[in-house]
Amino acid sequence: MKSLFLREWYSLAIMGMVVLAAVLPIDGEAAHWFLWATNVAVALLFFVHGARLSRDVVIAGLTHWRLHLFVLATTFVLFPLLGLLMLALPEHLLGAGIATGLLFLCLLPSTVQSSIAFTSIAGGNVSAAVCAASTSNILGMFITPLMAGALFHATGQTGGFSLDAVEGILLQLLAPFLLGQLVQPFIGGWLTRRKTLTQVIDRGSILMIVYGAFSDAVIAGLWTKLSIGMLATITLVDMALLGVVLCFTYYGSAWLGFNRADQITITFCGSKKSLATGMPMARAIFAPPDVGSIVLPLMIFHQVQLMVCAYLARRFAASHDERPTSISSAPGSR
């Protein structure tokens, strides 16, 4: 029981922030200062991402261009198409905010930390995973708001493209990342050796975003609009979405002739969506009272993808009869 709690404490903490926001939402002047602190924490998170990303790893990973094209096509083509299909679900099953949230989820880039971690555990191509996940996140800072504007306008959903939203995303996410890359030669090794510090920044910033977003949503009456049936529907839709993409990435990469290590990398990098990037983007794109309901599908998807991918990584590792891949000796994608 203790080991289970230690493994799942982050998921429990996220749920705890939702409960705390329901019981004690932050409002008024305190909410203003909490939002300021949250923005600082998110900027620090992306600064750390940039400072930890070795340029040697990027150069090594970029040689696997077929792998990166596959991951990017899955992330920014297949997922959005599936998101549009989900809008065809009966309106009584999902409210407008939840439908918008499902589409928004499908427009987000891949995760960085967990994609790399699961790839490493499973014996995949770690250098390519670092490059693929990081490239997805960097491009997503531009692609996600542009696609959101186009698709939300075309489908009549809430939110979308605005210059203020793009400016907010670039200043809060891309600028700190680029600054981190500038100082990477000086502090990259120090940060890499301090995994606990980076995990605290990573997970702490997300917990702050979750609490702030759901505080706004609770004040706007979120829980009076949601039912147990709607929550169950969101969970089932998220599970189905993840299952379709996992099958596509795993079997599709095998059909295209990728080796086992690259197949594992594509499976984990192509099937995931980033909560760390999605939460601040949602705050930049949507009105504060709407953010809680819009990010709810993303939060549930995040929990589902962690549990399913952890299981898959252990299965891959158990059946892996070749030498595990490392950053310094990654196999090619032929």
Fold and architecture overview:
There is one protein chain. With 334 residues, the protein is mainly alpha-helical. It has 14 helices and no strands. It has helices at 2-23, 28-52, 55-62, 65-86, 96-106, 113-122, 126-155, 163-192, 195-219, 222-225, 228-255, 260-270, 275-285, 288-319. Helix 2 (28-52) packs across helix 8, helix 4 runs antiparallel to helix 11 and helix 13 runs antiparallel to helix 14 (288-319). The longest helix is centred in the last third of the chain and has 32 residues, at 288-319. The protein is globular. It starts with a helix and ends in a 15-residue tail after the last helix. The model is unreliable at 1-6 and 321-334 (pLDDT under 50).
